[in-house]
Amino acid sequence: MGTRHWLPSDGRMLLIVLPMVVALFATIANSAAVMSVDLGSEWMKVGVVSPGVPMEIALNKESKRKTPTTIAFRNGDRVFGEDAQTLGVRFPSNSFGYLTDLLGKTVDNPMVDLYRKRFPYYDIVADPVRRTVVFRSGEEQYTIEELIAQLLQVAKSYAEDSTGQLITECVLIVPGFYGQAERTALVAAARLANLKVLQLINDYTAVALNYGIFRRKEINETAQYFMFYDMGAYKTSAAVVSYQLVKDKATRETHPVVQVLGVGYDRTLGGLEMQVRLRDYLGREFNKMGKTKTDVFTNPRAMAKLFKEAGRLKNVLSANTEHYAQIEGLLDEQDFRLLVKREQFEELCKDLYERVTAPLDKALAVSGLALDVINQVVLFGGNTRVPKVQDILRTHIGQELAKNLNADEAACMGAVYRAADLATGFKVKKFITKDAVLFPIQVVFDREGESGATRQVRRTLFGSMNSYPQKKVITFNKHTDDFEFTVQYAELDAVLKGDTETLGSPDLARVKLSEVAKRLKASVADNVESKGIKAHFLLDDSGIFSLANVELVLEKTVTKEEEDEDESTFQKIGNTISKLFSGDSADKPAEEKPPTEGGAEAKEEEEPASGKEGKESAEEEEQQQQQEDGKKQSAKDKEADGGAKDAKPEAGEPADKKAADEGTEAKNATVKPKIVTLKEPIPSKVELAYVVPLDGELFDASAKRLSALDAVDKAKQRRETALNALESYVIDAQVKLDEQEYASCATETEIETIRKRCGEISEWLYEDGSDADAETYEAKLEELRGVANEVYARHWEHQERPIALNALKQMINGSEGFLRSARNLTKDTNPEKDVFTAVEIETLEKAIRSTVEWRDTEVAEQEKLARNAPVRLTVKDITDRMGLLDREVKYLVNKLKLWRPKVKPTPPPKPEKTTAGKKEGEQKEEAPSSEEQPGSEPVLEQTPEKDADETEEGAAIDPTATQQDRTGASGDHTEL
C-alpha cells in the first residue's frame, strides 16, 4: 500500500512505501538513551540524550539540576543527596561525602591523611586484601567503590526517570590528574552499578568540547588557542587547547579537532579547603565566647553544623561584603552568632590565593605558548565565582575573563555529546578530541652488556603531553630466553614536584614472558631469521594503559623456485590480477623487505616505534617518519627501473650501453630472494603493581552487598507505598460518605459497614499496625475496597450515564441523517448511482428504530430505581448498543467509499481511408474507394484507444469520469 502523487510534468507516479517509514521509526524507537555523569567532589550533574530529544540535564526528585554527592545510612535506611546532608548534620559519622579523591588509593596515601584531617569523625580502615579505603559505620563497612557505585546508581535512576528509558551506557567525567589506579577503580564502580563506561573523559576536555560545539562555525584551518580554568570544590586545574579544522587522510573529510596542549593543576586547592578554614575559624570564635566548657572541636555533631554553616557563609560572601554566621543550639544548647566580613575570609585564605595562578602558568609552560596568543581564558567550576579569585586571574593575564560558559553544566553537556557520538543509535556531527598524557609511561628492563654485566634500560612509551588514544610498539631483539620487564610512570618528579606519593605506586605492571626460547628454537632455521620480540601497548581513549599482545617477529627468505613450488594455481591467478591492477610487471625486481611495524622502529634493541600503528601519534614522531619515508622513497626512485628520468641516457653515454646495463640489472634483480614476515604469539602474564583492582571474588562480594541494599530499599519503598495507599483510602472513604452525592448511592447497612471498617483500620494503623509489612497493608486495603467499591461503582454509573446517553443520542442523529442520504442512492431513486440495495436500507432503518426504542425503555426503567439500588442501565450497556449501530453504519459508509460508476463499453473506431492526391497534412472524413485509384492499396489509419490511466498534460484522473467523457463528443473519429 502507498500514496500516489501525480507529477504535472510527465504524469509519473511516485509510490511511497509505508513499511519503510514504519521500519525507520521502529529503529529510532529501539535506540537506547545514554547519559553522562559529572561526579564532582561536592555536586553531581547528570546529562542525558535520547532519540528525538535534545541533550539536557536530568532533574533529581527535588526537580533540581544538581545533587550533593553524599550518601548516608541510619537504622537500615539509605538516603542520598540533600536528605543525606540533613542526616549528616545529626549523625556525621554515618554520612559520607567528598569521596571521589579517595578512589584507587591505599590508606597510607597523603590524600587519605588529608581527608582524615578535614573530617576527623570518620572511621577509616584498610581493606584486608587491597589496602584501599573502607568506611566503617557501626557493624557495617563500605568500600570506596561501593559508595561511588551507589551514587552512580542514583544518577542512573535520575536519567531513566528523565528519559523514560532503560540506560546501561555512560560517559564519566574525571579530573585530568587521575592515574591508572583511580581510573580503573572508577570503571569497577560503574560495573557495580550495572553501567557500561563508553569513555572516561577529562573534565577540561569535556568543557572544551562543549565550548567548541556551539562555536563550530568560528573554527577554521588556522589554530585558535584557548585556556580553560577550573576551580572546583576539591581541586584547581588549567588547560590550554587548540581548535582547528583538520582533513582526515583516510576519509578525506574535514572535521574540527580540539587538542589539549598543556595542563596544570593543584589537587588540594579548591572551595573545600576554603570552607574547612572558615569552619575552623568559626569554631575558634565560638570557643572564645566561653558559652560552654566543652571544646567545640571535640563534638562531631557541632563540627558538622559548623561545616554546613561555613559552606553557606562562603557562598553568601561571594556576593556580599559581610554576613552573619548563626547556628541554633550549636553545642550544649548554646546558640552561635557572629558577623564575618569578606576581608576576614580572604585573610584566612591568603596563602591559597597565592596558588591560584600556578596551574595557569604551568599549563602555558607545558604548551610552549605565550599568553598573548591565547584568545580567551574561559572560567568554569563553582568556585571561580569567588570575586577574589577572579581579581587575581584578571590581574595576572591582563585581560577580561570569559564567563560565557555555564560553569556548573559545561562539562556534563560536553560529555553527553561525546556519549551520543560513541553510542549506537545516534548520529552527531563529528568533533574529534585529542587528549594528552599527564604522567609519562616507560618500560624498564635488564639488559646484559658485552662484558656480561647487567644494566637497567629505560625506554619511554608515552611521553608527557603525547596525544591519546594511541598504540606503541617496542622491540626486544637480543633476548633469547624467558624474561620480564616493568611498566612504570616516568619523570614524576618533574611533573608532580615532590607530590609523587599522591599518585601511589610508581610501578604499573610487571610483564613476564614465557616460552621465548622454545618458540625461537622451533621457528628459526637457515632461511628464517628472528627480528626480535615485539610488545604492543595501548593507551585507550579513557587514558587506561594496557598490554595488547606480545609476538615473535620472523623473516623468512623465499627463493623464486620455492615460491613457485609453494604457490598454488589460485594464488598465481590472484597475484597476476593484483599485479595488473597495481601496475607491477613480471620483469620487476622481487619484493623488497617490508617496513617494520610501528614506523621508524629502531634497529637497536628496545627502541619504541613511532606510534604509526596507533590511532593517534605524536606530531613530532609523524614528521620524523614522513621525512624518513621521503628519503627512502627518493632512494628507491633513483634505483628503480623504468623511471621516466632514468630511461634517458646520460650525457656522453651511448644509449645501447645504457640499455645493456639496464638489462643486466633487471636480470640480476629477478633472482633476488623474497622476504616474508612471520609472527608467532608469545605467552605473557601481566601482574599489576598499583592498587589491586576490584575484580573476581571481591567484585562479586561487593555486588552481593549492593544487591542486598537495593532489596532493602525496594521493600521499604513498597511498604511506604502500601501504607500511604491504605491511609489515603481510609480517609477518602470517610470523607465521601459525608457527602450526599456518595451517601445517596449506598444503603444504610453499607454505610455502617464501611464506617466501621474504616474506624477499625485507623485505630490499628496508629497502634499495632505501625510496624506491619507491605503484604499486611495491601491485604487490608483489598478488604476495604471490597466493601466500598460497590458504592463507588454506583456513583460512577450515575455520574457517567448522562454523558454516555448524550453520545448515543449524537450517534442516532448522525445515523438518521446518513439514512436520509442513503435512500437517494438506490436503484429505484437514482439508477445511475445505485449504491445501496433496498434490503441494506431497511436493515439500517430497523437498527436505528430498535436502538431508539431500547434507549427510551431502559432510561424510563432506570429512573424508577433509587440511587442506592442495583443499576439497571449501565454505561457498558450503552456503549455496546452504540457499537451495534456503529457497525451497521460503517458497513454502508465503506460500501459508498468503494463504489464506482459502471463504465459503458465504447465501440471500436471505424477504419479511415486516405488518398495521396490530397495536400500533405490534409485528412478526409470519408476515404475514397479503391476503384477511384486503381493499382494502389488503401492506406488505413486507426487511432489507438487511450489507456485508462493516461492523461494529457499530466492532468489528474477523475475516478468518476466515464469513458465517454474522456473520449469527448466527436463520436468514433479522433483527429491525429
SSE layout:
Elements lengths: L1 E5 L6 E5 H13 L3 E6 L3 E8 L2 E5 L9 E2 L1 E5 L2 E4 H10 L4 E3 L12 H9 L5 E3 L6 E5 L2 E4 H20 L5 E6 L5 H13 L3 E7 H11 L10 E8 L4 E12 L6 E13 L4 H19 L10 H18 L4 E10 L2 E8 H7 L1 H4 L4 H10 L6 E7 L6 H11 L12 H13 L9 E5 L4 E8 L5 E9 L4 E2 L1 E7 L7 E6 L2 H5 L10 E7 L2 H8 L4 E12 L5 E14 L1 H7 L2 H14 L36 H21 L15 H16 L3 E8 L2 E5 L7 H42 L2 H4 L4 H18 L8 H49 L15 H26 L11 H24 L13 E3 L24 E3 L21 H5 L9
Parallel strand pairs: 3-13, 13-14, 15-20, 17-21
Antiparallel strand pairs: 1-2, 3-4, 4-5, 4-6, 7-8, 7-9, 10-11, 11-12, 15-16, 16-17, 18-19, 21-24, 22-23, 22-26, 25-28, 26-27, 27-31, 28-29, 29-30, 32-33
How would you characterize this protein structure?
This protein is of the alpha+beta class. It has four domains: 34-269 and 356-434, ATPase, nucleotide binding domain (Nucleotidyltransferase, domain 5), CATH 3.30.420; 272-354, Actin, Chain A, domain 4; 439-561, Substrate Binding Domain Of DNAk, Chain A, domain 1 (Sandwich); 708-898, Substrate Binding Domain Of Dnak, Chain:A, Domain 2. It is built from 26 helices and 33 strands. The strands form nine sheets. Strands 3, 4, 5, 6, 13 and 14 form a six-stranded mixed β-sheet that branches. The two termini are 37 Å apart.
